[in-house]
Amino acid sequence: MPEHLEVRLPDGVRLHVAATGPVDAEVTAILLHGWTLDGRSWHRQLADLRDRFGERVRVVTYDARGHGRSSCMALRTATLAQLGDDLAAVVDQVVPSGRIVLVGHSMGGMTVMEYAHRHPEHFAGRTAGLVFVSTTAEGHTHTAYGLSPRITRLIRLAETTGAGVLARCGAWRPPHALLRALRPSIRWMLFGDRCDPADIRLVTSAVAHASLRSIGGFRASIGAQHRLDTLAALGRLPAAALVGDRDRLTPPPCAESIAAALPTTELTVCPGAGHMLMMERPDDVNAAVAGVLDQVLTGTDAGTSGQRVGTSG
């Protein structure tokens, strides 16, 4: 069973953290969820890591500020820069020693990049491997929702305007009745060709636990971030990047640019999959995380980047 912890940040925000495995494990994997989600999105990875590595790897997940069971925050702190600082605090308080592998989905991957940018010495002293799942280092540069440029511009305008309104709604949570009505839209936006109904329920539940301030407040920061230069300066860390070829939010060019900036990255493109690869293609995500952990545990040098096609089911 996971150990539940609380990290209190300097501004009073409390982060809900779950950890499995011994504190003195050889490596700790920290899994960071995406925007409007929470730590439960990694449930298929948690089980796989426990089965593969036992007590050699400690696994930590946490709910970002304003998400899940973590507390809400001041609107001015709804930024990726703050999330990068929060990750540094989690490392210090929950994993005070040893090597870490950072695994980030969507906003979680952007958080990892921000941590590397804002705390380069801290990052370099602790981080031994990286896995980027359905994320980007270029803000909304490549986000077209799978639609025409004209429609994309209209949707982005509506989304940005709506985000500004939601950001001012404070700690309120989305009404359950509204989320049930929006399930078809959530399914279209986040998933590819196939989707397990249980995954839709989990995602809807996560959104229901995110504050309206966080749903709206992080949008501007996510759209504006550019961190390819940060990735290019990271050297030869073992790394992997995965993307679905039906991803409407972070399409394949997002992962391709990450792999180009960080040449040790193994790139996996999953046919027919959307944005929620941890749920849609757990075998591919599990294999990528395990591959990076194996390199760290065995001390294998990271090779040059390569691309492979993920599983179709």
TrEMBL record:
Entries under InterPro entries matching the protein: AB_hydrolase_1, AB_hydrolase_fold, AB_hydrolase_sf, Epox_hydrolase-like
Pfam families hit by this protein: Abhydrolase_6
Gene3D superfamilies: alpha/beta hydrolase (3.40.50.1820)
Name of the featured protein: Pimeloyl-ACP methyl ester carboxylesterase
GO molecular function, one term: catalytic activity
Cellular component terms (Gene Ontology): membrane
PANTHER family assigned: HYDROLASE, PUTATIVE (AFU_ORTHOLOGUE AFUA_2G14860)-RELATED, MONOACYLGLYCEROL LIPASE
Residue ranges annotated for the AB hydrolase-1 domain, each copy included: 30-288
Organism: Micromonospora chersina
